[in-house]
Design a protein that fits this description.
It contains eleven helices and eight strands. Helix 1 links the parallel strand 1 and strand 2. The longest helix is centred in the C-terminal third of the chain and has 19 residues. The radius of gyration is 17 Å and the shape is globular. The model has no long low-confidence stretch (mean pLDDT about 95).
Length: about 250
């Protein structure tokens, strides 16, 4: 596995310039936890502003259009977000798949475009409650990943996988450490088969199911968990940094 855990905050559709104080606080505090790689993905409107503020943390985007340019009113492509200061982009998030009907084919095209623009990619995958209860969780998640992997030329350096069990986000149900470990191990096996163990070791597998400061240490200590993709808890520097501290402690344990 990669050496440093990767903690990424996804601000989703939240944040105006007033949120820059939170970004500054996260950035300054992250300088005290160098054993952890910290990043945030603000809305498009704040990418450049957060990039200018950041001395330590990475800054990314939450999505991109697959095209290079053209008549796509309201869309933003990978080169544009890179120009604004983004170093990575989150793609295939469950909220994009469900809320915008994004197919694996569309996500493939976005990944290819992001890589061509020099961005790192966080590829999200995860199953619904119905899929898990039907016993199809592993095959469903691995098929999501397989649909994207063939497009990567040299994936290890620029690929992160984020497993987000949809059924464990805001539902009252939680994934056990055993659930998380089993899925992450399956993903690791797929990466090993695809790229070989040495190359795939550089690909971190994040967990993204309602991670908070109180459950972060246990989650991050789970085998094959290389970090966390954090939603609502990343909007507060204090709360988000509680997760970063948990990651630092799990690294020292």
């Amino acid at each position: 596995m990669a050496e440093r855990p990767y903690i990424v905050g996804n601000w989703k559709m939240n944040g105006t310039r007033a949120m820059l104080s939170e970004a500054r606080a996260i950035d300054r505090a992250a300088q005290r936890y160098m054993k952890v790689e910290v990043a945030v993905a603000p809305p498009y409107t704040l990418i450049h502003a957060v990039h200018k503020e950041a001395e330590q943390i990475g800054v990314g985007a939450q999505d991109c259009h697959p095209g290079a340019e053209g008549a796509h009113t309201g869309d933003i492509n990978a080169s544009m977000i890179a120009d604004a200061g983004a170093k990575f982009v989150i793609l295939g998030h469950s909220e994009r798949r469900r809320g915008h009907g994004e197919s694996n084919e569309l996500i493939n095209a976005k990944i290819e475009s992001a890589l061509e623009a020099g961005l790192r990619v966080i590829l999200c995958c995860g199953e619904t409650l119905e899929t898990r209860d039907a016993g199809d969780a592993e095959s469903f998640v691995l098929n999501q990943i397989k649909a994207a992997l063939p497009l990567f030329g040299e994936p290890a350096e620029r690929l992160t996988i984020a497993y987000e069990p949809i059924w464990a986000i805001g539902t009252g149900r939680t994934a056990t450490p055993e659930d998380i470990e089993a899925m992450h191990r399956s993903i690791r096996e797929l990466l090993n088969e695809t790229y070989g163990e040495e190359a795939s070791a550089a690909v971190r597998i994040l967990y993204g199911g309602s991670v908070k400061p109180d459950n972060a240490p246990e989650i991050l200590a789970t085998p094959e968990v290389g970090g966390a993709l954090v939603g609502g808890a990343s909007l507060s520097a204090e709360t988000f940094l509680g997760i970063v501290v948990g990651a630092s402690e799990s690294e020292e344990a």
